Structure formats: C-alpha cells, structure tokens
C-alpha cells in the first residue's frame, strides 16, 4: 500500500515515513501543499496524510483539490488545530478522519488501518484495457500471453497503470521510480518506456504508451 505524507515539519514527516515503512508501507513525503497536490494528482496513493498549516495550499485546500478531481482516496488530516470549527472544516473539505497533534502512534496506526479497510481488500492485480499487471509476480499479461518485467520496468508500468490514463510528467516518474537521491535523468525514463513499448507490442496488446511533449506519458488503448 502506498502512502503520501504532506507535512512541512521535516522531523515529523520523516519520523512518520520511517514508522510506516517499518510497517510495510511504501511512503513518499512532500513538504508543501503545492508539491503535495502534484503528487496526489498522479492517483497512485492508497492513503493521504495531510497537515493543515503548511506553505502553498493548506491541508483544507489540498483536500478540496483532491475531491474536486473525483478521487475517493482516504484522507487523514493531522493538525494542532483542535477546535470544533476546525475539525468541521477539515471534514467538509473532504477529510475522512481528523487527528489532532500531539497524537498517539497506536491511535494513528489504528486510524490508518481503519481507513484502508474501507477501501476493500489488498489489490494484487492492475488492469488497463486488455493488459494486466501481476503485482506479486511482476508479470505483464495480455490474454494468454505474459512477459516478466525487470524491477524498473515494473515500477514504471505500475505507475502508468495506477494513473488510469492520466498523464504523468517525466520528473514525477523519476522521483517515484528512481528516488529523490538518484542521479538518474529523464533519459532513463525514456529508455524504460521504450522497453515497455516493445513488450506491449510483443504481447499483441492494443494498449500503448503515449508521449505528450513537455508533459510526460500516459497509457491509451486503440479501438478494437
């Protein structure tokens, strides 16, 4: 399960990231609301954890931004603002739960588990058009045909499939697949997109990876 934390208190954000990673989650952090919105727009997260008071969009504005895009991803809001009007504003903005700081770690984890349970069981396969991606086996399939993906191919393909056909900028793919500290460049993304295009073609799929100049990549399916 993939979690996005949007929190401008660096120490708290990194502590939460470490805690959740130890619990088996994939966790990414943004330190301001505008960056958080860019990340959330990729549609790849199973849970958003938002601070309220932060640079750029505040937590309420970010929650509204997410809901305006018809995303049902669970939102857990963390804030020191504990007054009833503040909690009501957070819930009206689209948050599913409102936890005030300082909070107990046990309560935080219980909230996360409860919100994720509402989303249903663990997903073990992603689908787009006539192709499916086996999340456990790292295999891309179309009909009776299947091909094993390398680790990076798998990560890029999963990101594209989770976006549901929405465009993903190259820099977002770089960050999510190679990480903030990597020396990888946009050419790395182009190379792995090329590998995936060849594998989709070898499977006889109608799905292709389309490029939009200066915008990135998305999946699309040709008419049958």
Write the layout of secondary structure elements.
Elements (H helix, E strand, L loop, with lengths): L1 E5 L3 H13 L3 E5 L2 H8 L6 E5 L7 H10 L6 E5 L4 H10 L3 E4 L4 H14 L6 E4 L2 E4 L4 E4 L2 E4 L2 H12 L7 H9 L7 H17 L4 E6 L3 E6 L3
Helix pairs in contact: 2-3, 6-7, 6-8, 7-8
Largest sheet properties: 5 strands, parallel
Strand order in space, largest sheet: 2-1-3-4-5
User: How would you state the average pLDDT, rounded?
Assistant: 86
| Fraction in helix | 40-55%
**Helix count, DSSP H or I runs of 4 or more residues:** 8
Enumerate the spans where pLDDT stays under 50 for 5 or more consecutive residues.
none
**β-sheet strand percentage:** 15-25%
- For the termini, the CA-CA separation is 33 Å
Order of helices and strands: EHEHEHEHEHEEEEHHHEE
Class derived from helix and strand content: alpha/beta
> What gyration radius follows from the Cα positions, in whole Å?
18 Å
Query: How many individual β-strands?
Result: 11
Shape: elongated
Characterise this structure:
With 224 residues, the protein is of the alpha/beta class. The protein has helices at 10-22, 33-40, 59-68, 84-93, 105-118, 151-162, 170-178, 186-202; strands at residues 2-6, 26-30, 47-51, 75-79, 97-100, 125-128, 131-134, 139-142, 145-148, 207-212, 216-221. β10 and β11 (216-221) form a beta hairpin. α6 crosses α7 (170-178) and α6 packs across α8 (186-202). It starts with a strand and ends with a strand.
């Amino acid at each position: 399960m993939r979690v996005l934390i949007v929190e401008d208190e660096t120490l708290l954000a990194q502590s939460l990231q470490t805690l959740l990673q130890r619990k088996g989650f994939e966790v990414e952090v943004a330190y301001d609301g505008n960056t958080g919105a860019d990340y959330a727009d990729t549609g790849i997260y199973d849970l958003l954890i938002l601070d309220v008071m932060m640079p750029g969009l505040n937590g309420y504005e970010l929650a509204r931004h997410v809901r305006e895009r018809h995303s049902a991803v669970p939102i857990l809001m963390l804030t020191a603002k504990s007054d009833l009007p503040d909690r009501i504003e957070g819930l009206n903005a689209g948050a599913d739960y409102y936890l005030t700081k300082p909070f107990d770690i046990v309560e935080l984890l219980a909230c996360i588990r409860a919100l994720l349970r509402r989303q249903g069981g663990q997903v073990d396969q992603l689908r787009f058009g006539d192709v499916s991606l086996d999340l456990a086996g790292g295999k891309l399939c179309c009909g009776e045909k299947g091909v094993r993906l390398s680790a990076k191919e798998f990560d890029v393909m999963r990101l594209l499939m989770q976006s549901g056909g929405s465009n993903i900028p190259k820099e977002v793919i770089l960050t999510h697949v190679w990480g903030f500290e990597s020396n990888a460049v946009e050419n790395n993304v182009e190379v792995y997109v090329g590998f995936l295009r060849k594998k989709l073609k070898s499977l006889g799929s109608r799905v292709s990876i389309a490029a939009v100049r200066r915008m990135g990549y998305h999946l699309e399916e040709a008419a049958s």
